[in-house]
Amino acid sequence: MDNIDILIQAPIFNVQLLLDGVLIGALFALAAYGMALVWGVMNIINIVQGEFVILGGFVAWSLFQVGVPPLFGIPAAAIALFILGYLLYKLVIFRLVDRDLFISLLATFGMSILLQQLMNEVFGADVQTVDTQLQSWFIFEGMVSVPQIKLLAFVLTLVIAVCLVVFMRKSRMGQAIRATAQNARAARILGIDTDKVYATTYGINAAVCGAAGALVVMSLTIHPFQGLAYTIRSFTIVVVAGLGNIAGVVASAFGLGVAEQYAGFVLGAEYQLAFVYLLLVVILMYRSFMLGRQRKYLK
Predict the structure, then answer these.
(1) Most buried one in 241, 269, 274, 288, CB count within 10 A?
(2) What is the largest CA-CA distance in the chain?
(3) What is the structure's pLDDT at 298?
(4) pLDDT for 278
(5) What Å distances lie between residue 147 and 24, 54, 77, 218, CA to CA?
(6) Where do transmembrane segments lie in this chain (predicted)?
(7) What is the pLDDT of residues 60-73, one digit of tens each?
(8) Vertex 13 angle, CA 9 and 14, to 5°
(9) For residue 209, what pLDDT is reported?
C-alpha cells in the first residue's frame, strides 16, 4: 500500500500511469476489434487471437534481423497474417461456422496451442523486441516521459482503425460483411457469397492482429507463449463494449490499459497479468448477475 501513498503525495505519477495506459490500450483495441469482428460476423470466439498478435510480432522481428526497417514490418506482418488467416479458414474455421459456440472455443484453443509450439520451434523461446532507436520526450519538468515509439504506435493504431472503418462502410466487401453479420441467410438469398465473406473476415482479423503484433514488438516484448494474455484482454474488452461498438471497444481498451498500469504500480508487475484475469472473472459475474435479474442469460 506504500505505492498508493506515493500516488497521493505525488499526483504527477498519476499522469504517467494514465498516459502509459492510454498508449498501451490502443494496441489492445486493435486486437479486440478483430475479435469483435469475427465474433459478430461468424459467431466464433477466436481463442487463437493472441497467437496472431505474437506471430505478427515475430514476422516484424524476423524482417528487422535481416535489415528491413521496423516500420516496414507492419504492412508485411499484416499481409503475412492475412494469408495465414485465410488459409486457416479454408482448412479449419469453415467447419466451425454455424456450429455450437463451445466447439469453436475448443477448436481455436487447439490451434492456439499448435501455433505456440510452432513459434517456439521456429523462433526460439527467448523474449524478443525490436529496437527502433527512438527516444523519449519529457514533460512536466522531466517528471513524465513519453516514449516516441509508443506514441507512434498509438497514432498508427488510430490510422489503421480509421482505414478499417472506411473499408467496412465504403467497400463492397465491407458492406457484404456487414450484411452477413446482420442476417447470413438473407445475405445468401441476395447473392452474397458468405463463404468468401467469412474467409475474408477471418483474414482481416488475422491481418489486424499481425499489425498490432508488429507494433507490440516495437513498443514492448514478445514471447511464443505470451499470446493468451492478449486473447484474455481482447475478450474482456469485447465483453464490456459489446459487438459492433467500435467506440466502446476503443474506450474499454483505454480503460483496461489504464487499469493495468495502476494494478502494476500498486500491486507489483508480477500481479499485473493476474489482475487482468481477475477483472475478466468479475466482469463475467457482474454481467451474469445483471442478465439474471432481467431473466436473460449470457450468450
Answers:
(1) 241
(2) 64
(3) 53
(4) 87
(5) 11, 21, 23, 11
(6) 12-32, 44-64, 70-89, 101-119, 149-168, 235-259, 271-289
(7) 999 999 989 888 99
(8) 95
(9) 93
Q: Which CATH number fits domain 3-296: 1.10.490, 3.40.630, 1.10.3470, 1.10.10?
A: 1.10.3470
What grid cell was written down for 161?
482503425
Q: Cβ(33)–Cβ(164) under 8 Å?
A: yes
User: Of 42, 7, 17, 72, which Cα lies nearest the Cα of 206?
Assistant: 42
Contact 230, 49 (CB under 8 A): yes
DSSP SS3 for 146? strand
Amino acid at 242: G
Q: How many residues are given for the chain? A: 299
Cell (9 digits) for 89:
479458414
What is the residue extent of each domain of the chain?
A: 3-296
Q: Which amino acid is at 123?
A: F
Site of grid cell 500491486: 267
Identify the segments of the chain with pLDDT beneath 70.
1, 244, 295-299
Only one residue has cell 497479468, namely 273
